[in-house]
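Limitations
The structure tokens in this dataset are predictions for the assembled complex, not deposited experimental models. Users should treat interface geometry with appropriate caution, especially where small molecules or nucleic acid strands are included. An illustrative entry is reproduced here so readers can see what is and is not provided.
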Amino acid sequence: MTDRNIEAIVAGGSAVRATEGVDEHLVERRVRSESVYEGHFLKVRRDEIRLPNGKTAWREHVVHPGAVMIVPIADDGLLIIERQYRYPIDRVLLEFPAGKLDPNETTLHCAQRELREETGFRAREWAYAGRMHNAPAYSNEFIEVWLARGLVAGPQELDDGEFVEVQTMSEAALFALAVTGELTDAKTMVGLLKLQQWRSGAWSPSWQPAE
Amino acid sequence: MTDRNIEAIVAGGSAVRATEGVDEHLVERRVRSESVYEGHFLKVRRDEIRLPNGKTAWREHVVHPGAVMIVPIADDGLLIIERQYRYPIDRVLLEFPAGKLDPNETTLHCAQRELREETGFRAREWAYAGRMHNAPAYSNEFIEVWLARGLVAGPQELDDGEFVEVQTMSEAALFALAVTGELTDAKTMVGLLKLQQWRSGAWSPSWQPAE
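Predicted assembly:
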């Protein structure tokens, strides 16, 4: 086996909109689309699509506005983390703060708003740390990751019916919980990977002031 | 701020079924549940729930059978990775092999089956690397992670209408793509975190033969 050249893969379109012909052998095309469930939170569509081999098939998928996750780093190095009950899995999860984008909201504005609302913290400095797709088989959700530092505490502004416990934890403790299996939230583990890449020198955050 | 004792957090129930009273201030209780969409792939339920403050609210959520992801490591150290078109996001993603559990299937059996079907590879040795929840706000999906080594190549057995390109890539190249943002699949980034924890000595896989 031979390693594959990174540039070739990038050019080949990993995580890149696949409309330029190079991935015609993989791409599925929409024939028609219908809404099958329009709830308060979840919207589900069912699309008839054309497969690369010309046959048709159906794709059912959740329509999501996108989200942000914040990795908040206090001046003493501790991370701000939430404990939150997640109804679908009947578990309390440890998670970095996160929330859905409002219409026409920039991801940085959303990150600042969600951090303030859920934890009470404001951050003086922000650094973009990339995007993830967390359920690409059946949801168009993406999560934009922001690091935040220069934290200033304030009051939580939780929505009515939102219950979030805010804690602080060292990076080492959080990494240890990911090893033991006590930390299972995928986006939070991706946040840990970003921190690890920063600490190892593979990546360096580009800090900017709050908007 | 003070660091928080790991044992206290584990005892407090992170990622642990929250039914023992310690998290009563966070837990939501089902009042009633109804199916609102029953598709070929997606099943959606809408539940009336009781919040910790006694009020009621609704939770809409996808019912998923659970899944496995395989991190396949060839004898020369290269990783087996897939390029696959994901309709909901209109992108070709780089992903470790993964697939849904069949009814009554063990996660290891599922991992062996999915690796063989999607990539053609069989693996002589397997090591469990933990669980993740990838969309806990609106899906009960969990993904069990298995490392696989001692790979033997064979023919792909793709389902009709499944199009998957199999490649090999070094760990370093895959980490680099996660830094540049070309790799956006959350479960695959969690796989990279597991590999990093192994390489750094924070965790050591416990290998077992194939079932």
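Some entries come with short summary sentences. For this one: The CA atoms of residues 122 and 152 of chain A lie 5 Å apart.
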